[in-house]
Task: inverse folding
């Protein structure tokens, strides 16, 4: 089956190996990417547990002249969007995160041969799930990384947010590389 698209059939993927039954093992790669996403969730949750056990709410500890560790809660989305919306946003962003996660799992099955694409969406999946875990358990997302310049602070964020951002950057790079090849 020939295809001009880089998101081509699994049969051309070097990862498609045959099982003893002769059927391709197409499900191996998605499971590995999902395991990677789970590792992202575990790292994110580990640091959040360490911070919540070591800090009081709103406590800030300088690490460098431009970086602090803090403990703050975000009931909204990125940059505290909708943080003061009255509580409905907790479940809205939880459902949105679950829906995005389901869509990403579907993408992982559809594009098993595309390593950078799968890495990117796995990072996004791990970050989304890490923040969904916070919303379900705590009712808010735990943020603890605070970068600043003089008296101007960038909104605090966490490992899950870093994974989502890195995944988004890799998606852009992957798409630019794909467009260049054609």
Result:
């Amino acid at each position: 089956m020939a295809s001009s698209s880089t998101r081509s059939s699994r049969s051309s993927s070097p990862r498609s190996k045959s099982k003893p039954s002769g059927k391709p093992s197409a499900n191996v790669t998605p499971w590995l990417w999902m395991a990677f996403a789970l590792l992202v969730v575990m790292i994110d949750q580990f640091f959040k547990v360490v911070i919540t056990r070591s800090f009081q709410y709103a406590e800030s500890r300088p690490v460098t002249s431009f970086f602090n560790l803090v403990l703050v809660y975000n009931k909204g989305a990125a940059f505290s969007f909708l943080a003061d919306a009255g509580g409905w946003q907790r479940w809205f962003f939880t459902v949105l995160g679950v829906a995005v996660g389901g869509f990403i799992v579907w993408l992982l099955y559809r594009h098993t041969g595309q390593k950078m694409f799968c890495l990117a969406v796995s990072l996004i999946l791990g970050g989304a799930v890490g923040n969904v875990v916070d919303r379900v358990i705590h009712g808010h997302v735990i943020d603890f990384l605070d970068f600043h310049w003089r008296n101007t602070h960038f909104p605090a964020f966490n490992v899950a947010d870093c994974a989502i951002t890195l995944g988004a950057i890799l998606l852009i790079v992957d798409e630019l590389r794909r467009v260049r090849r054609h």
Observations:
- Strands lie at 60-62, 67-74, 141-149, 152-153.
